[in-house]
Amino acid sequence: MPADAISAKFDVRRWDAVAGGAPRYQRYELELAPHTPILSALLRIRDEVDPSLTLRYSCRSAICGSCAMQINSKSRLACETQVGPEMDRHGRIVVEPMRNQPVLRDLVVDQSPFWTQYDRIEPHLKLDPAHPMPEGRPTSMTPEQVERFKETPRCIACAACYSACPAVEADAAFPGPMALAKLYRFVVDPRDHATQDRLVRIQPNGLWLCLRCHLCTEACPKDVRPSERIRDLKEMAIAVQGGTERGSRHAIGFKENIEDRGLLSEAKLVRQTYGAAGMIGQLPQGLRIWRKKPEVLHKPRRIEGADELDRIYEALDRESEGAP
Ligand code: SF4
Ligand code: SF4
Ligand code: FES
User: Which ligand is nearest to the CA of 219?
Assistant: First the structure.
């Protein structure tokens, strides 16, 4: 046993879809070096203590993406998360299967929802039939063109982002961060000729369901930054289709409200998002909010310090126009 060994306590969620019953947490205790990867600890438990413990893994090197799980409530790769820091921070290590996918047994989930959403974005190049791929040799791109999607090929399809995403939890129709990051990769690829069609088709029940919480980016072990790619897709979607989708109308209305007075006018935003006729459907919810917060119907005054906001917007506009 190493001299610096610590007593690590694992609470592992156990459940079997075939046997059914209520899930339970099983405590295992091991003496381990602090730098031990949690995957190695779980494999030791399986090999030496409890052969019924079920988990998925392959490379043990943060490459294959198969060992993603919830570790102390965060979506992590078990092979690159060490025991010592988790024990220091939490006093124990709670290990659970990934979220937003049905559990099959213990730490193994059915990844079908994740892969179904991936298929939905049609993750392959769609070439212009008039310009087919040159036979027998690769197509070339400039370094600047490659730079635009340099993060997305790092993705190892571990689904840590999908597990962390509250929009997936709220609405199974949402494609999820990884699928949208992949979509971005094809949208900005100069060889792909379906850019407009991809951006139009992903909007209803798709792109705009993202809550901009950035939990996917926080969870991603490969720094793909899916939430930033989703932000880019939203900007491109507005550029090709204007504010015709409800989500884009909401985003544009939000910006205009803040630009105008520095404060959100809830009633105005609802009208901008749903249109005058669509506001009728929102009346019951509006009344519920108004009873609790009558000030939502007040016309907001321009806030003190709004000039600062004007300067920020001007700087952002200059930046988007490419000015120094
Ligand atoms: S930023 Fe969007 S895609 Fe990412 S976790 Fe939040 S809701 Fe999901
Ligand atoms: S984007 Fe990151 S977290 Fe999501 S599947 Fe790819 S590597 Fe995993
Ligand atoms: S075992 Fe392959 S990423 Fe962890």
Answer: 2
Distance 116 CA to ligand 2 centre (A): 15
Domain CATH for 105: 3.10.20.30
**Residue 63 belongs to domain spanning:** 6-109
Q: Which residues of the chain are modeled with pLDDT < 50?
A: none
Ligand nearest to C-alpha 159: 2
Same domain, 11 and 65: yes
Ligand 2 residue neighbourhood (C-beta within 6 Å)? 65, 155-161, 177-178, 181, 219-222, 224, 226
Q: Is residue 202 part of a domain?
A: yes
> Are 127 and 80 found together in one domain?
no
Q: Is pTM beyond 0.70 here? A: yes
Same domain membership, residue 89 and residue 77? yes
Distance (Å) from CA 219 to ligand 2 centroid: 8
CA 297 to chain centroid: 34
Name the residue among 266, 236, 255, 269 with its Cα closest to residue 310.
255
CA torsion angle for 297, 302, 303, 308 (degrees, to 10)?
140
Question: Two tokens at 77?
Answer: 């790769």
Pocket of ligand 1 (CB under 6 A): 164-167, 177, 210-216, 226-227, 230
